[in-house]
């Protein structure tokens, strides 16, 4: 539809390129966010356990333990799992791309 509106016969290469760029960039940014946020929450708990902000047993420590519980899965599983998704997306497009690119409209 968009290709015929613009007067172009086949927009598949542009669509695949945009999909690759958007998926890779978004996945990279979210993975970095999850890795850094998880590490920050883990280190916040360690910092409070050194005696800062009331030390162990304080309300800040209880909140930091909750943050650490959420942060560990982000840091250890969710962030690295996005790398697998980006790689799978790239491989799928490379393998199936010719099916989209060679099809006449």
Write structural notes for this entry.
- With 105 residues, the chain is an all-alpha fold.
- The chain has one domain.
- The protein contains 3 helices and no strands.
- It has helices spanning 2-6, 12-49, 59-101.
- Helix 2 packs antiparallel against helix 3.
- The longest helix has 43 residues, at 59-101.
- The model has no long low-confidence stretch (mean pLDDT 83).
Topology:
Elements: H1 2-6, H2 12-49, H3 59-101
Helix pairs in contact: 2-3
Membrane topology: Multi-pass membrane protein
Subcellular location: Endomembrane system
Protein name: H(+)-exporting diphosphatase
Secondary structure: helix percent: over 70%
Number of strands: 0
Please identify the structural class as seen in this structure.
mainly alpha
Radius of gyration: 22 Å
Low-confidence stretches: none
Q: What's the quick description here?
A:
The protein is mainly α and 105 residues long.
């Amino acid at each position: 539809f968009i290709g015929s509106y613009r007067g172009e016969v086949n927009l598949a290469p542009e669509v695949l390129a945009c999909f690759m760029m958007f998926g890779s960039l978004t996945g990279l940014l979210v993975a970095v966010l999850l890795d850094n946020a998880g590490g920050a929450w883990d280190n916040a708990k360690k910092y409070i356990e050194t005696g800062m902000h009331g030390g162990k047993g304080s309300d800040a420590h209880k909140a930091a333990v909750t943050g650490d519980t959420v942060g560990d899965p982000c840091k250890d599983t969710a962030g690295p799992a996005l790398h697998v998704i980006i790689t799978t997306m790239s491989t799928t497009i490379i393998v199936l791309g010719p099916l989209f690119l060679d099809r006449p409209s």
